[in-house]
Amino acid sequence: MKYYRLELTDKNGKTPLDDTGNLIGPFDSSRTPGSALQIQFDALITGYDVVSSGTRISLFGVPISMLRESTQLAGCQVDLIAGFSAGLPLANPNQAGLILSGQIYNPFPVWQGTNQSLNFVINPSPLLNDKGQENSITLDGKKGEKLSDVLNRALTAAYPGFAIEIAISDQLVLPEDAVGVYSRLTQLAAVIRSHSFSYVNRDDYTGVQMVMQNKIIRVFDNEVGDAGGIQILPQELVDQPNWIGMFSVSFKCPMRADLRCGDVVELPQNIISGPGSLLSVNTERSYSSLRDRVNFSGKFLVTSVRHVGDFLNPDNTNSWVTIYEAVVLAKNTT
Q: What Å distances lie between residue 220 and 82, 231, 245, 284, 314, CA to CA?
């Protein structure tokens, strides 16, 4: 079954209250199976050089007392856990988890006819630090330093509450001193990706990307060598994967939280191996030789994750899914 849990906490770590003293959350679909509140969201998680806008979450069916208190929720922490709970044969509850975490930037109520909804615009990056000042990132790199070391030092100082994960090519070495101050991670991400192409001048290199998700900042490129990938099982694919660019592909899975930007995945070769073989049909007229194969397979690096949720929509092929974009791994020429 579809599953979600939406948690709101204020700056003191407590659940906020509406104007009648009732708790605003947590909203957990497993506590009221079959009658959980409708929730809609479209969360795109990709490089900060590509997109910097927040994610909107809409929760329907809440009382008016919560709508009146919506303006007081600005700055609250939001954690959205989603996926599937145990029940259906192919549901994997181990893949459910935290898909979105951030601060409420703009809360607002909507009341149209009989529909009432509480809406949040979530920003994964805190706009202000603990002192109420705007965050700034100071880059102080010296000639000959690895870019990974420079970025780790700068990001650790700018975001002390975040885990920093960097996996980029050792060929990215500063040819000269690099000094700069950036007020937003989007600015730094755009500069670093642009410069990384000049360091590694190859057609199959996709540049350095920065992603912030769930209190983690990941910096990565597609120079990951021959590392093993996370296996995508045949029954975990919704539709066929497709090429969307020269070196990039897109594939869709039932909503899952275990794959993140920067992970290496391996697509299956056919759709009738493992548990999926129970669903296969092989007759003379089924053309199984054409229908049981995935368009292409191999290892790819995830560069974009998009969680699409519409809880009460019965269209399960589109209403509770995660759409991934990935790129071919760069050739190891070192």
A: 25, 20, 19, 48, 37
